[in-house]
Amino acid sequence: MTQPDCTTPSPVLVWVPGVAGTVADGSEPFRIADADDPQLLVTDLVATRGDGVFETIGVFDGAPVNVGPHLRRLGRSAQLVELPSPDLDVLSRAIDAAIEAHAPVPELTVRVMMTRGVEGTGTPTAWIHARTADDWSRYRAGIRVVTLDRGLSTTVAETSPWLLAGAKTLSYAVNMAATREAVRRGADDVLFTSTDGYCLEGPTSTLLVKRGDTWTTTPASAGVLPGTSIASVFAMLEREGQSVREELMTPADVASADAAWLLSSSRLAAPIAQLDDTPLTVDTERTAQILAVLKGQDPQSA
Amino acid sequence: MTQPDCTTPSPVLVWVPGVAGTVADGSEPFRIADADDPQLLVTDLVATRGDGVFETIGVFDGAPVNVGPHLRRLGRSAQLVELPSPDLDVLSRAIDAAIEAHAPVPELTVRVMMTRGVEGTGTPTAWIHARTADDWSRYRAGIRVVTLDRGLSTTVAETSPWLLAGAKTLSYAVNMAATREAVRRGADDVLFTSTDGYCLEGPTSTLLVKRGDTWTTTPASAGVLPGTSIASVFAMLEREGQSVREELMTPADVASADAAWLLSSSRLAAPIAQLDDTPLTVDTERTAQILAVLKGQDPQSA
Question: What are the C-alpha distances in Å from A110 to residues A33, A62, A86?
Fold first, then answer.
């Protein structure tokens, strides 16, 4: 993690008691809070069980990207873990308030968090946290990725919904441990694989693979997060007349592709330069174009 | 969850800045804090990633049970997720301070929590939280248990350590979702099974099975938590001349046993009265004896 230097503007915290319509009449559904003050009780279920859902939204020159898709996915994650439905309008306005209150910077990372709340209350806790984005520009030149088994088959989302495959929950300890394992192996990031031999997603990213004029990602039905970034990129490619699809791919399929990327809202477009021991071509032009899309810019200007 | 009534004594919070030797010279490694005040920053990695480890210790008439084994297991979990080693002596004294500060009650539940700390600091956050135990006495008469697939094989602890099988982490969203699924099916609790067809453990408990004079639990190598309760019970049984062992069991093995239990430090001994559709005999005498052991009492007095 990049340590903020002393010239980095202060993060902004917006507390959202009205995330699920739970404020008293006349109270504000959200308010700016002091990010340096402790805000969470130790009995919040996020602190005792990692029990909550979240989204991370990129903001470029003050403009947040894909707010609607991110909030709809938050609602879907909440449904999968049986949290109350979040009020997406309140959250959207709270995000705007956080961005407005933050000092202007080229890139902000905005987290949208919703937990099951303090034990016994049944009332979710929610907040928005906006901070200067970490610098992931080193990811643009190409990253080394290792495949790591996630231990699950591509059928679990259908057969075993309690495993929460495809929900973006705050129980990310395994994702963090897998990332540490990648670093230990001298790599930058991870591509999870299923027990039935297919590529899934990264711990915090979505897989995109190019072969000729066909662009492929992992089907959400395989138990991966339905990516907000991939939807934007696919829309751009379709406008260009390219073919896009969801299909299961093996590591050999990815390693033999024309190019491949890991996409995320904060790290944006990371071209895979090496998958396990196989080097891949980095498509600099396409990377710039995808980067522009993920920043909410016109890809033609890239 | 049992809602505390107005006569329930207040919980006690002990903050432990010295959990990993991180306090300045002359500062106290722990201090009593106000459990009603927010203590956690929203940027603590437990709040953003469910990234931490924990233990739950039962305290009966003021005496905590199995503190040493619990703290050693906390240290093992910390090692598995690459947290700094906790100072077990500091934690032990902090637990005593929490118990002493709490109003005397017959049963206390003490949580020992250690997170990766606030992002970018590299310093763990830790606290002890002591509160009046929930009433699980309804579990004594026998519980209905459903088997649910955990989606993983019994070999993952060995093959894929980044999946953190066997670490007691704060990423418990799946455990909570499985418990909700059990309730939805009209049951009380869950027995997780592996993809290769064996019984593992409950979301917050360890399996114990009796067949004649032989008592069996799941091997820790299958990716389950090494139970502190089972160790106490096995020690009691061995003193009695019974045979104890770790061995993989199928659901059919459990359903055809003389008796079976789910053990935990807070719910104690819960006899399985029904596993999926199969009724099991509840061994009332043995349940009382196991209960006594788990309360740190002489089992002969049960």
Answer: 15, 11, 17
What's the CA angle centered on A268, arms A55 and A191, to 5 degrees?
85
Task: Give, for all 302 residues of chain B, the pLDDT tens digit.
Answer: 445 455 789 999 999 999 998 677 778 999 999 999 999 999 999 999 999 999 999 999 999 999 999 999 999 999 999 999 999 999 999 999 999 999 999 999 999 999 999 999 999 999 999 999 999 999 999 999 999 999 999 999 999 999 999 999 999 999 999 999 999 999 999 999 999 999 999 999 999 999 999 999 999 999 999 999 999 999 999 999 999 999 999 999 999 999 999 999 989 999 999 999 999 999 999 999 999 999 999 877 66
If you measure CA to CA, which chain A residue comes closest to B50? Answer: A50
Cross-chain Cβ contact A46/B51 below 8 Å: no
Amino acid at B43: T
Would you say the C-alpha torsion A69, A72, A78, A79 has a positive or negative sign? negative
Interval A254-266: pLDDT, tens: 999 999 999 999 8
The residues, any chain, with a CB within 8 Å of residue B222's CB and separated by 6 or more, are B154, B157, B194, B198, B200, B248
Cα angle B220-B229-B145, degrees, rounded to a multiple of 5: 80
Answer yes or no: do A1 and B180 touch at CB < 8 A. Answer: no
Q: Give chain B's domains with CATH numbers.
A: 12-132 (3.30.470.10), 137-301 (3.20.10.10)
* Closest residue on chain A to B195 (Cα): A152
Written as six digits, the tokens of B100 are 């002493």
Q: Which residue of B has its CA nearest to A37?
A: B41
Q: Collapsing DSSP states into helix, strand and coil, what is residue B213?
A: coil
Q: Which residue has the tokens 């139970």?
A: B227
Cα separation, A45 vs A50, in Å, equals: 7
CB contact under 8 A, B49 and A173: yes
pLDDT digits (tens, 9 = 90+) for A57-86: 999 999 999 999 999 999 999 999 999 999
Q: ∠ CA(B273), CA(B274), CA(B277), 5° rounding?
A: 160
Q: How many other C-beta atoms lie within 10 A of the C-beta of residue A74? A: 25
Pairing of strands A243-246, A214-217: parallel
Q: What is the pLDDT of residues A128-185, one digit of tens each?
A: 999 999 999 999 999 999 999 999 999 999 999 999 999 999 999 999 999 999 999 9
CA B188 from centre of chain: 17
Which candidate in B171, B172, B175, B183 is best for mutational testing of the A interface (most A CBs within 10 A)? B171
B159·A153 Cβ contact <8 A: no
And the tokens for A38? 């402790």
Q: What is the DSSP string of B89-137?
A: HHHHHHHHHHHHHSPP-SEEEEEEEEE--BTTT---EEEEEEEEPP--G
Answer yes or no: are the C-beta atoms of A211 and A261 closer than 8 Å: no
